[in-house]
Amino acid sequence: MKKIIILGALLLNSAFFAQKKLAKPFSTPEMDAQVEALMADMTLDEKIAQITGTRIRELLVDGKLSLEKCREHIPNGIGHFCQFSTGQALSPEDLRDLVREIQHYLTTETRLKIPAIFHEEAITGFATQGATTFPQQIGVGCSWNPELIEKNTTSTRQNMRAVGATFALSPMLDLSRTAHWNRHQESYGEDAYLTSRLGVAFVNGLQGDNFTTGVAATVKHFAGYGTKNNDVKTLYEEYLMPHEAAIKIAGAKSVMPSYGVYKSLPISVNPTMLDRMLRREIGFDGMVVSDYGAIPMVYKKYKQAPDLMTAGAMAVNAGVDIELSSPTTYPLLPKAIEKGLITENEVDIAVKRSLIMKVKLGLLAKNPIIGKDGNLDFDPPAFRKLAYETACQSIVLLKNNGVLPLSKEVKKIALVGPNAATTQGLLGDYTYQAMRAFWKSEQYNPNNPKLVTLKEGLENRIGNFVNIQHERGCDWSAGLEAKIDKSGFGDSRLGKLKLLTVTGLPQPNLQNAITIAKESDVIIAAMGENISLNGEGRSRKGIGLPGEQEAFVEQLLATGKPVVLVLFGGRQQVIDKLEGRCAAIVNAWFPGEEGGNAIADILVGNVNPSAKLSVTYPNSQKKEEVNYQNGYDANNQPLYPFGYGLSYTTYEYSNFKIKSSAKITKERFSVSVNVKNTGKRDGTEIVQLYVSPTDKNATMKPIQLKGFDRISLKAGETKSVEFLISPEQLVQYKNEQWIVEAGSYEFKIGASSTDIKAKGTIKLKGKDLTLENGRQIFFAKSRIK
């Protein structure tokens, strides 16, 4: 295939979705000249230093920077400092000062005076002590709100730059189609189109308009991680799409390969995926960084190399520019050059990309700006407000028999369950708090930033008017229900984490919980997972409610009082035996620092829920991938479909319009519908546009999302939404070509993938359209009137 020409995306309805400039090249001639002049004077050891990462802990003695350690460990400089803030427990000012101190050593004592890149996780905000903790991505995916995501990552950028961090190992854009995957919580869900839209927003906010003031985003994990990725058609059309969108539309210049395997070869050393797909077909011209320890795994785990030296050479040959997180295989590259496994020219290519990234980030300027002077506030009111709004828009109302919002007649609430008054159910993996607890076996400070529990949220909202009685009733799980990947993380870490989650808590009193439940007007049961039951390296035995929680809920239901089940966690948890008897079900996911206030406001009606599922909610714990695009089995319907979510108001769709035919060209055609709020409350509806092939022999999947928009409507108000569709949104990968097939397509507008409100067919006239230069990424343009 020819190299793909980058042509950008269609306009969308808001300023955020305005036409972006074409993705700029990774470097300019001036950058190239600056870097080449620097490299001309570099020794091979100095080059190797620029393509490796290390940890700050290697330079510390009793928590203080040691110049002797610096001279010993990084005499030639270093490329990256890895997870520099989650490895410390420092105030913002102390963290900034430590970064400045290290950069001062590098720019005054090393021969080349090249600063390092300090990078960190940013999936739920800047992962550092005291910074705003946003909801986990699986919940944010249910907001269907790209504009809000861009605001969130803009705040993340500001916090990171304030301490001198310039690079993030986020966003995670893997599609996840099974809740059994332990990293499911980090994904935006199962759909490529939705993930692409949200991923572009994430990168736009993080990078800003200029790399010199922004934070470089790393798109991960390339590609097909956590899924079955050997079907070429699905890999190209779906798993590659979010990465491609982030690269082409948002201008992401860093990519991280996954730990996975493609065609029997680990992706970290896989030229088919990293050279052919990523660079030659997608047209990526930036930097590729390894996942932590991924290159040594080629030898140690996958046995695809005879030794570490060869594994490193294979990675450079495949196109991995930086080895993270420790210098393990790349320091052996000089020996690999001697043995003819690699040439110094190939090393130079990686070094040049590493240095160009530093130029782009402003680190090689004459007087680079490292951090922000003065006192630093990582969780100001404006950022907390964003965390609150994101939580409100992430929480999905799955069921409601009318008990919600809670009426003024409710005077006694029994608040029970392991997540009712604790903070562990608020935190997704790769938050600062979860990382300190898992990796360091350390307690985090629930007041820095302040983590608002559900109990506190309810007391904040109705504590003066309603008697809220609390009792845990049961633990999260009786034993170590999750198991750990011992090959990568060791044996004892999970046991220590389990102890941390219950330290300081009284033993649950089941009998007291049942007693207060019987005396209540309504029972709020806060169940689900915590940081020990979900996350990288942690795998549960199943995906139902952990431990004795289901049995506890059964006893609550037996009281005859209405039960509002509030689910916390990083995955859909199978509740098929409980669903029919609960009065209401709220899926809160891991809702972040303002989770308690957000859930409370939804329960009492201060906020009208608007979130829609970004995943299919399974009806059993069977280990299988589920994807709405394949259609649901009529005899095995999911508990809730993709795109589903309830509101406290109702919406009516009317006046659907679509042309009967259009030319199969780049000219867009219109699909429109009116939406009316027919209830008594103001609300926001997420209008979803799907397409289905009408040809029985079509190779396109039965139904695919092709557009969406959030429409805010006052009670009784009607608005019209119009989607402008490019025929190229219907492109398929067939016989190693991108083809738009002529013929008839049925477009559907609905409130979910199964709740279709209106539909119509359009015939695309002309010959099949072959895209000789590869796929462009088109988003539907929408207009609201």
Could you characterize the architecture of this molecule?
The protein is an alpha/beta fold. 29% of the residues lie in helices and 19% in strands. The protein folds into three domains: 15-360, TIM Barrel (Alpha-Beta Barrel), CATH 3.20.20; 384-630, Glycoside hydrolase family 3 C-terminal domain (Rossmann fold, 3-Layer(aba) Sandwich), CATH 3.40.50; 651-784, Immunoglobulins (Immunoglobulin-like, Sandwich). It has 22 helices and 31 strands. The strands form eight sheets. The chain has a seven-stranded parallel β-sheet. It has a six-stranded mixed β-sheet with strand order 12-19-18-16-13-14, sandwiched between helices. A five-stranded mixed β-sheet has the order 21-29-28-23-24, with no helix packed on it. β6, α7 and β7 (216-222) form a beta-alpha-beta unit. The protein starts with 28 loop residues before the first helix and ends with a strand.
Structure keywords:
785 residues, alpha/beta, TIM Barrel, Rossmann fold, 3 domains, globular
Name the CATH superfamily classification of the largest domain. Glycoside hydrolase, family 3, N-terminal domain
Report the end-to-end length measured between terminal Cα atoms: 42 Å
Q: Note poorly predicted spans.
A: 1-21
What's the CATH architecture name of the largest domain? Answer: Alpha-Beta Barrel
- Order of strands across the widest beta sheet? 1-4-5-6-7-8-11
Percent helix range:
25-40%
Query: What does the average pLDDT come to?
Result: 93
In DSSP terms (H or I, runs of 4 or more residues), the helix count works out at 22
Q: Major sheet: size, sense and barrel closure?
A: 7 strands, parallel
Please count the beta strands (DSSP E, at least 2 residues each). 31
CATH names the topology of the largest domain as: TIM Barrel
**Which class do the helix and strand fractions yield?**
alpha/beta
User: Which overall shape is indicated by the principal axes computed on the Cα atoms?
Assistant: globular
Indicate the radius of gyration in whole angstroms. 26 Å
How many separate domains? 3
Kindly provide the name of the CATH class of the largest domain.
Alpha Beta
Fraction of residues in β-strands: 15-25%
InterPro entries: Cellulose_deg_GH3, Fn3-like, GH, Glyco_hydro_3_AS, Glyco_hydro_3_C, Glyco_hydro_3_C_sf, Glyco_hydro_3_N, Glyco_hydro_3_N_sf
Enzyme class: hydrolase
GO molecular function, one term: beta-glucosidase activity
Pfam families: Fn3-like, Glyco_hydro_3, Glyco_hydro_3_C
